[in-house]
Design brief:
The structure holds two protein chains of two kinds. By secondary structure, chain A is mainly alpha-helical. Chain A has three domains: 3-143, no CATH class; 212-428 and 438-482, MetI-like fold (Orthogonal Bundle), CATH 1.10.3720; 510-721, MetI-like fold (Orthogonal Bundle), CATH 1.10.3720. Chain A has helices spanning 3-20, 44-49, 56-69, 75-96, 108-111, 123-142, 150-179, 187-194, 197-200, 203-206, 213-241, 247-259, 264-273, 278-287, 298-323, 326-334, 339-368, 371-376, 383-392, 398-425, 445-472, 488-494, 510-540, 546-555, 561-571, 583-606, 611-619, 624-635, 637-653, 669-678, 682-709, 713-716, and strands spanning 97-98, 101-102, 180-181, 184-185, 475-477, 482-485, 496-499, 502-505. In chain A, strand 5 and strand 6 (482-485) form a beta hairpin. In chain A, helix 26 runs antiparallel to helix 29 (637-653). The longest helix of chain A has 31 residues, at 510-540. The longest helix of chain B is centred in the middle third of the chain and has 18 residues, at 168-185. Chain B has two domains: 4-227, 3-Layer(aba) Sandwich (Rossmann fold); 238-350, RNA polymerase II/Efflux pump adaptor protein, barrel-sandwich hybrid domain (OB fold (Dihydrolipoamide Acetyltransferase, E2P)), CATH 2.40.50.100. In chain B, helix 2 packs across helix 3 and helix 3 (109-122) packs across helix 4. Chain B starts with a strand and ends with a strand. Chain B is elongated and about 80 Å long. Classes of the chains: A mainly alpha, B alpha+beta. The A-B interface holds A 144, 147-149, 610, 612-613, 615-623, 626, 630-631, 634-635, 712-716 and B 52-54, 56, 71, 73-76, 79-81, 83-85, 87-91, 100-101, 104-105, 132-134, 148-149, 152, 158.
């Protein structure tokens, strides 16, 4: 697209946004459009001509942007300035004048003492911002930036703006909330909050009163990291080097945690080990052990995190072991080393980077986990749950929540930085282009037995856990061991009554299920589309600020869901962008949370597509957009489908972020299930969870079928056969 | 032949602070096949990408057929390019690949396909229309890539090392095919290669590049016989560079003093004085010590190494002027390592 073309379209968009569309949000829905063009649906033009003179500048800038359309003035400079200035001004005035009137008191001398309250931006605002962004991009393209391609300029500027709005700004809001107290700037409050004893107390060492929540989190995460790695390693060694050839079964197990809402294993643990749990009853009956609530606390949370983390560690370590060239081990053997020596001196050192990666993955997953500590934590709090209770609990304290969020964020970033630093240097590439005809040497006997002793009971345990989830919904009260078969939980949740006018969905869970499906179905294509587009920009285009854009796009991967949730309610609860309580905030949240995976997948797939294909297309007269549409996108289909599947599944199973964002009107399945658990209705929760798992399994298997079929040519189909690299490199 | 198809006016391309192409002036005649030749990193590929518009010049000006294209992107120039990897779209059939440029250029699909079919016929690819690139041999893929470029009737057709993925036998045939096609259609072709034989075989004009600059530009014969400096002499075939002195020069002949001997050889453009002299391996004749035909041109030598290569023999001689690498026809008399011989220098090139 040429700069002039973009400028015209963008100008029309901005003009509609300023002159026609309702400037502010319509909280009462489309019905309020009836008031147009006055009242609540007044466009900016009407407001500015009324008493809101501060809305005049965008109109002036729109007029200024008209000049280049008729060939007047320096198009590049004028368009760039008018676009950038308008976007900046619209946001600035939105923050300056809010629901309580003037927010930036230093502007009082200019705007006068009585500034009327101002609501959030609506469709008009959105259109105007999009339009002015386009005008700015057209200006930059006309000045020769972005290779003179207006399409690319618009994509870069637009996605940068979106990333700033929905990833960066919310984080800044958290920082702001932590540093303010009672609307006063108070750095001392931030320091007090960050060093509070609730976070850092070491009381438990001395008198067992209970340790600081940071220590809890760190200890739990370290244990989870170490143990998931150990269990994963045992499985991986057995499947790659042992006699055991049950890879398929283990692979099937690895899919489960991906499609299971994170806290579901907790429910099964309660059913087994809770005070009235099945195992607890037996043990108390057989050995006369008093029943206790030991599962509620660190042991239970740890067990739950191990159940969901171990398969992921297995997947990662299996890839690492397979990448070790067997000829290295054979070489050691020919030099006279015995099996155990070979393992100790060759295999193990080569494994170490993989082990570190697995540990850090388990560590970070544990930091970010919210569902399991919420369900099983009892009095044992970790940062993510403490943040939640600081917002949703009896003592609503956003400042405290923000400070805790900063601590959690610091821990996560620290882990990612450690990973980048440590693994950046020590990556032993043992995969070369040359074929390796070696045969992996079998495990030393003692080691094999040790692995078996860990892996087999664990596999059985995992099977029991998922068995409980699948059975639990169909029996009367599995939580108390009442195993009478019944449909009543499903009836409560999903009753459908056939009436004269059609089916009526009377079950209590229908609303949340429909919302979940709707939000997932909308956010998945948006995530995949934006992710692939960003991947294309980052991998194929050269423009200033590329590394910054990449960093912003990948950033949200390192932000724990709880922090995202907190930051969103802090950033989007008041004008100028007011989204809380809508379905849109759920969709936006998922899009930007799942974006990094789409970007990574897209970049990986693009690296398989030779750049000369793009260039060939360009030399034949195709612009960037045509090349993208006709050459790149068809070749990226497997990556697109994979991104779709990932974002759909994660939108269905995510809980940590959206638990802050759901509302009575737009509730999500996971949040609903957590609510049932808190109300003690475990069986209903399990019934709903099992339905979600089955739904997701259908989606994942269906997508695998489709992806399996779209093998194209030599270059196109290669991406998906490669071992899945753990999706955790920050900005790299 | 006389009008200029591509003109560079002090065109430079900087990557960071590296001058990949450094203030190059260039005028390529219409209808000629011009080869850009040089070692890797000399800027030849960047030069062809500047013509294509895949890179935009940092400084200077570029014209194609009289039009200033300095700031135009590849899509807006009327060029076509055959890539080293061929860059055939793996998800499109041969026909779709060849008609792609016409379709994105706004032609109706049917018209585009008819034209593409015709071009495929011309290149002997009839019957391959429905195949995917992966189902073709390397040579066929190469021809599809050429068809895809030609069908757009470009003002300049660019080849970036188009033969490097083919085996040696096929390479010779394909380069002749390209040459024939270029002559038949009167195309302006710019051709990048690092293989001097390929360059000598097909070009009207060879441009030898070094460190982003043009070392020398001329016909293959000019470059071989009158290289401007040691670099070009060495790059255009092998050359023995020795120190010597021109005593007198006239009418394409010169008296030289090399390694203590005075000889008279064929030499253009020599000026009296000390300097470097290049001697081509085939411009030296190895003769027995006693042979009379050595005459005033011969210098004493000793065979260091001798090798029989079927079509010819190679010798490495030790002389007072330095080591000489010599190629002799295999029919000539053979010498063994260690033998004393005389080396008759027939022609030499003055490098100054």
């Amino acid at each position: 697209m040429g700069a002039a073309g973009l400028a015209r379209v963008a100008w029309i968009c901005a003009a509609v946004g300023l002159l026609v569309a309702p400037w502010h949000g319509l909280e009462g829905g489309l019905a309020e459009l009836g008031a147009w063009p006055a009242g609540i649906a007044t466009p900016l033009l009407g407001l500015a001509l009324g008493d809101r003179f501060w809305l005049l500048p965008p109109l002036g800038l729109l007029v200024l942007a008209t000049l280049p359309l008729f060939g007047l003035g320096n198009a590049g400079r004028i368009l760039t300035f008018a676009g950038a200035a308008s976007v900046a001004y619209i946001f600035a005035q939105g923050y300056a004048i809010g629901l309580r009137g003037l927010e930036w008191s230093w502007l009082a001398p200019i705007l006068g003492p009585e500034v009327p309250a101002q609501a959030a931006l609506g469709w008009g605002g959105a259109l105007a911002i999009a339009g002015f962004t386009g005008i700015c991009a057209a200006g930059l393209a006309a000045r020769g930036r972005f290779g003179g391609d207006a399409f690319i300029a618009f994509l870069v500027i637009g996605s940068a703006l979106l990333l700033v709005l929905f990833v960066f700004l919310p984080l800044l809001r958290v920082l702001q909330a932590a540093i303010y107290e009672h609307d006063q700037f108070a750095p001392s409050a931030l320091i007090a909050r960050l060093t509070a004893s609730e976070a850092w107390s070491t009381g438990c060492v001395a008198d067992g009163v209970g340790c600081g929540v940071v220590w809890n989190t760190l200890v739990l995460a370290t244990l989870t990291g170490v143990l998931t790695t150990a269990i994963g390693l045992a499985f991986a060694l057995l499947t790659t080097r042992g006699e055991l050839r049950a890879v398929r079964m283990f692979r099937a197990l690895t899919i489960l945690p991906l499609i299971t809402p994170p806290f579901v294993v907790s429910l099964a643990l309660i059913v087994l080990f809770g005070r009235t749990g099945i195992v607890t009853q037996w043990v108390s009956y057989l050995f006369d052990v008093p029943r206790s609530r030991w599962i509620y606390g660190m042991p239970g949370v740890l067990l739950a995190q191990l159940l969901s983390g171990a398969p992921i560690a297995f997947m990662l370590l299996e890839g690492t072991i397979r990448a070790i060239a067997p000829s290295l081990e054979e070489a050691a053997a020919t030099m006279g080393a015995r099996r155990l020596t070979v393992f100790r001196t060759v295999t193990w050192p080569l494994l170490r980077p993989g082990l570190a990666a697995a540990f850090l993955l388990g560590f970070v997953e544990s930091l970010a986990d919210f569902g399991n500590p919420l369900v099983l934590g009892g009095d044992f709090d970790v940062l993510s749950t403490r943040i939640f209770f600081a917002i949703a609990g009896a003592r609503h304290d956003p400042g405290r929540a923000a400070a805790l969020a900063i601590l959690l964020l610091a821990l996560t970033f620290g882990a990612f930085a450690a990973q980048a630093y440590w693994l950046g240097k020590r990556r032993y590439v043992t995969v070369s282009g040359k074929g390796d005809s070696g045969v992996p040497s079998p495990l030393p006997r003692g080691l094999a037995m040790g692995c078996g002793a860990i892996a087999l009971p664990w596999a059985a345990f995992t099977a029991v856990i998922y068995g409980i989830i699948m059975v639990g919904g169909f029996v009367h009260d599995i939580g108390r061991g009442d195993m009478t078969i019944t449909w009543r939980h499903f009836v409560t949740a999903f009753e459908v009554e056939m009436q004269a006018g059609g089916a009526a969905f009377r079950g209590a869970a229908w609303d949340s299920l429909f919302t979940t499906l709707e939000v997932s179905a909308i956010s998945a294509p948006l995530t995949a589309g934006m992710g692939i587009m960003l991947a294309w920009l980052l991998a194929r285009q050269v423009f200033p600020g590329r590394r910054t854009l990449e960093f912003m796009a990948m950033l949200s991967f390192a932000i724990p869901g709880t922090v995202v949730g907190v930051s969103y309610i802090m950033a989007f609860n008041v004008p100028p962008i007011e989204l809380t309580g809508t379905a849109m905030i759920l969709i936006i949240c998922f899009v930007f949370r799942n974006l990094p995976v789409g970007v990574r997948g897209g970049i990986a797939a693009l690296s398989q597509i030779d750049r000369s294909l793009d260039e060939a297309s360009a030399t034949m007269g195709a612009g960037a957009f045509t090349t993208l549409r006709r050459v790149i996108l068809p070749l990226l289909r497997p990556a697109i489908v994979a991104a779709l599947a990932y974002s759909f599944v994660h939108a269905m199973t995510g809980v940590s972020a959206i638990i802050f964002l759901v509302s009575a009107k737009y509730n999500m399945a996971t949040a609903y299930i957590v609510g049932r658990v808190e109300a003690g209705e475990i069986a209903l929760a399990i019934a709903y969870s099992s339905l979600l798992i089955v739904l997701m399994l259908i989606v994942v298997l269906g997508i695998e079928r489709v992806v399996g079929r779209v093998q194209i040519g030599r270059r196109g189909g290669r991406g998906e056969n490669e071992p899945a690299e753990p999706a955790m490199r920050l900005g790299a | 032949m006389s009008e200029t198809a591509v003109r560079f006016d002090k065109a430079s391309k900087l990557f960071g602070s590296v001058r990949a192409v450094d203030a190059v002036d260039l005028a390529l005649p219409r209808g000629s096949l011009v080869t850009l030749l040089g070692p890797s990193g000399c800027g030849k590929t960047t030069t062809v990408r500047l013509i294509a518009g895949l890179e935009l010049a940092t400084e200077g000006r570029i014209e194609i057929e009289g039009r200033d294209v300095t700031r135009l992107a590849a899509a807006e120039r009327r060029i076509a390019m055959v890539f080293q990897s061929y860059a055939l779209f793996p998800h499109m059939s041969v026909l779709e690949n060849v008609s792609y440029g016409l379709v994105v250029g706004g032609a109706r699909r049917q018209a585009a396909e008819a034209e593409a079919r015709q071009m495929l016929d011309t290149l002997g690819l009839k019957g391959m229309e429905a195949r995917l690139p992966a189902e073709l041999s390397g040579g066929q893929q190469q021809r599809v890539a050429v068809a895809r470029a030609l069908v757009l009737r470009p003002q300049v057709l660019l080849f970036d090392e188009p033969l490097s993925n083919l085996d040696a036998r096929l390479r010779r045939r394909v380069r002749e095919d390209i040459r024939d096609l270029q002559r038949r259609l009167g195309l302006t072709v710019v051709y990048v290669t690092h293989d001097q034989q390929e360059a000598l075989a097909v070009s009207d004009i060879v441009v030898v590049m070094r460190d982003g600059r043009i070392a020398q530009m001329g016909t293959p014969t000019e470059l071989y016989e009158q290289p401007a400096d040691a670099f070009v002499a060495d790059f255009m075939g092998e050359a023995n560079v020795i120190e010597g002195e021109v005593i007198a020069a006239a009418d394409g002949r010169a008296r030289l003093a090399v390694g203590g001997s005075k000889i008279e050889v064929a030499m253009r453009a020599g000026r009296p004085g000390k300097g470097r002299i290049a001697v081509r391996p085939e411009a030296v004749t190895v003769l027995p010590v006693a042979a009379a035909e050595g005459g005033s041109n011969a210098i004493p030598a000793r065979v260091q190494r001798a090798a029989f290569l079927g079509q010819h023999r190679e010798y490495e001689l030790e002389t007072a002027a330095g080591a000489l690498f010599v190629v002799a026809p295999s029919g000539a008399a053979a010498f063994a390592a260690g033998e004393s011989v005389q080396a008759r220098i027939d022609r030499a090139i003055w490098l100054g």
